[in-house]
User: Fold this.
Amino acid sequence: MKRLAPAFVLLPLLLTGLLLAALTHTTPLTYRWLYADMLSALTLILLAAHGLVAWANDEADLWPTVLAAWLFSAAAVLGHVGLLSVLLFLGSSLLAFRTGTRLPLVAALSTGGGLLGLVVASGEWLLGAPGAGAGLNSLSFVLLLTGTLTASAAHGAVRGHMPTGTPLVAVLCLTTLLRLFSLGPWNLGWLFAALVVGGATVLMAAWQAAAAPPEQVGAWLGLYLMGLAIAGAGLGSAAGVTLAGYALLTWPVVRLGLARPGGPAWTRWLFTGAVPLSAPFVAAWLAVAAAVAGDLSLVAVAFWGAALLVAVATRRLAGASAANLAPHGGQSTAAILSLVLGLGSPLVVLGLLEPLAAQLQGGLTPFGELALWPWAGLIALNAARQPVATLPSLALAALMVLLTAFAWVLLRLNRLRNTRNG
Amino acid sequence: MGELLGALGLAWPRLLLYPGGIFALGASWLLARWLRWCTGQPPLSLPPLTLSDRINVLPPLIVLTLLPLAPAANFPYGIDLVVAVSLLEWPQLCATNQPPPERGALVRRYGLLILAGLGMLEGAGSMTLSDLVMWPTAWPARVLLLGGAGLWLAALPRLLADPATQRPAGQCRALGLLLLGTLPLSGALTAWANAALPTTLTGWLIPPIAYLGAALVLGGVLRLRQAKA
Assistant:
């Protein structure tokens, strides 16, 4: 019972996130200092998911993580910049105390500083206030981007050190960065900076993951997904925001599956994007499709190359000696979640990410949109609303079933004929 | 839902006859024999197929089934280049009996292919396979598309040098990669031939010419490499 207590505290947070997604599907909820929209709902779901992953992975000293998840969730539904910064600082302090590193604190100070910069420039403490958009300035943007990168430990990864970022802080910092789209459009320099930094993070993490020892692959793939999310913000389109949301949703699944890479061999294939229709594969496809839809072919092939590098990590995991890998109960659950998230990606886009992009539409460019392909999968549209990339995941799955059925019938007939002849 | 079921119901000629099914298995076997002959290797006698062989052949076979090759029956749910390559590379990723490639080897193997993808993407303005067969009107796009296709075919000798190519899944992978590279060529030839020949005839004539020509050139390149080595 004592072991289950953190899960019981985190499950209501997950349910609140799902409930909030249903309530704010069409319109954000605002009341005085409260400002809850689809981005808040996504943040709550992600924070709860990361907390539950920490619990499932049997991480030591879990209560600071649980408390930080609740504090960050409160920050995600507050439209008051001062309170948001305070809660971010408090939660990060708890995590810094627990992990013994200063990274969460530095990230929180950077993000908090960026938020206060908005207040100084606009004179508004509330993010939903009509004049809050006037506060968008380059210094705030740089501080928010730096906070996100620091929380992901991307700077250490440049030197090849395994990323040791704190997912809870990284999630809140990135969603706060995405929140800037609700204030107004980003200038081209900010979009370019976010795209370059995110793309570089993606390439660097994929390069390291392809050669990392099995126990480090999970951490590198986490940074890879975080890079995809930052690059999605840099694309500045509805497709980019969808990519950011989906990459963030895939992260807890990968963390759960690759925390200790052991367990059944089939599960390892589902965490690195090698299997079409798994969640990491869909995330990689979304990245390429969003870049193509934004007419950024060079970025698209960079993402494609990164996805190939990441797929090689599968081979390393699959070839790793079973003796070196401890069995891990959560791996099968994570593998199933990866398949559900991958095959159910149209539903995730429809129910969560499309409304999220619609609510941030005021700050987004029209260069790229991901639409639902009814009963087939996803389709990426360019600015002229022409299809430029297609992932008919459900149609592919149905075709595979049909082909397997044909092959099975042929094999049975062949066996029957051999039996009669013999 | 009805639309998807209807499309699946009408997909059987694609799945069983052309471009998947009998055509895919037969053409991939022929291509494998041709490539082995060009490299001076004797015909391979395959051991009995295992269950994993049968499973691994499915993803490349699906790609071959969905290729926009005339005169195949129309199927509304086409795939794009990234999905096609991922499905085609499945047998390669599953070949766990070989050591995983190093990063440098990976870049050498796929670098040219990705560069070719960039050319085709810029030329066609889209990643969908059906757009790769469309012949663009602007000449820079035509140059990029054809250049991309040329680079794609140039990348194949290195990609197909792997021993895993000899299994049925690897043979389908080789055919799929070759046919992907011939899509822009097929589009260009069709646009050129439409001026002189009836459309129905070009639909039957041009795709086989494109992929037979590409297979012959690929074999010739492999032969030259072999001779140099």
